[in-house]
Each structure stands twice: as structure tokens, then as C-alpha cells.
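Repro:
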Amino acid sequence: MIDTKIPMDKILLIGDTIIDINTEGVLLGTSSETPTLVITKDTETITHGGAALVHRNLTKLECSHEFVTNNSLVTLNKKITTKHRYWCNKHKLLQVDDRDNTPITDEESELIFEYIQRSDANVIAIADYRHGLLSPKLIELINTSNKIIILDSQVSQSPANHHMYKHIYLTLLNEHEAEQYVSNVSWDNPEELKEGLYKEIDSLHFIVKFGKLGCIYFDSKTSIQHRTHSVENPVDESGAGDAFMAGLLAWMQKGSSINEASGWANEWARRSVMVKGANPPDD
């Protein structure tokens, strides 16, 4: 196996902040106007999600890092994406998103990259939620950096963009994201998955997350499966990927290899599904 321990005294995390609103209601019945459920609002919480949730997890794990996000360096001419989820009896009924996926301007991209280059952090951790902060221009500039790049780019309503990034040290994907590049994504056939990812993405190492099963770590010579202990009745799975990324970075900073840190990241993600909303796990 390739030696996967790297110095990570300080990490620069960059990514889109998302405002997460969770409204919990009590069921009243069905509407007299249309065949839809009617709930009355019981509680409502507002938290910072997306890359901000990775940041909050890193802070809880006492990981030395700095965070670059919407309006943290320059005032961007775009609104922050908001995701409003409606719940009843622990079931999500509806999600309403108010998105602005417009890429930031080339000038804004250059200002952010200048800051990245001046930073004393030797690792750039990219949490790309596809809401415009990681613009094509900023990605192009980051590709010229001599810093270590760890990438987690989300595929939801947008097509995959991992191939736009170059010289990546470590790429994180979930099962669905891996399917954008490999036709047969299977826990039981890691070698075929590894071969397909190395053909499509310019990365030295990979981790593919398989939800309740765990994750698989790949380098050019090795495939190692890390099973997780499943949670029988998860409360909220929406922030598990953010918790995984934070757990991985924190334990790598403590001196663990990628492979060793993968197991710890599994556990931190497992704990995260036991708390409501976009929040780090309880102690």
C-alpha cells in the first residue's frame, strides 16, 4: 500500500454554506380543498448546513482549520441557498429549496484564490455543494495550486464535476456519485469500481461511501472495505456525508493514514444520524 500519512497541521476548508430550516409539525388530518396532509407547526430550527456543517463538525472535533465560504472574504452578488424541510412524526413530508447556483464571477474567484495561496494551510478541503462558490474559474485556479487537495463534490440535481478537478490527493464519493463514472458500482466488486474511477478522475486516492454498509478505501494497489455498525432507528441521515468528511480530516490531522481514518469517519457519520437536523453528533 502507498504510504498515506501526510502532514496536516492546518486545513483550509472551502465550500457553500446552506441554511437548513426544519419545521416539525403535528398532524391535523387532510385538507378539505385538496387530498394533502395538514400539519400545525410545533417546532422550527434554523442551522448552518452544507460546508458550514463540515466546519461545525471539525470545530467539535478540535481540528485546526480555517473556513472560506459565502461572503466570508468578499461580499458575493448571490444569495445563500436555503433548504426548508417539513416533518411530521419523524417522517419528512416535503422539502422546499430556494437555490442560487449562479457561479461567482471571475474577479471574485481570483480574490478567493489569492487568499487560498496566502494561507499557511497546506491542505485544501473542498466541499463543493454545487451552489456556485466553486465556479469553473475558481476550480481552474485551484488546479494550479501546489497544496494538497481533498475533494468532496456533491451530485444531486447537477451532473458530476469531479473530472474538472486536477491533481487531487483524495476524492470522496458516495455510491450515487460513483455511478456517474462507473456503470457497475458494487460493494462486492471493488476492483471494477477502482479501475473505473482511476480512468475517469485525476486522483491519487479514493473513498466511496456505501451508507449503512460502510466505505471502501482505494489506492492504486489496494482496496479495503470498512464496515460500519448500522443504526437501527436513525433520526436524520441528511448530514452523514458532512460528518464523514469532517471525521476523516480530523483523524488524518491527528496522524492517521487515510485507511485508518476511514474507520473513524464511519463511526462519526454513524453517530451523526442519531441527532435531528444539520448538527454534529452529540458527545
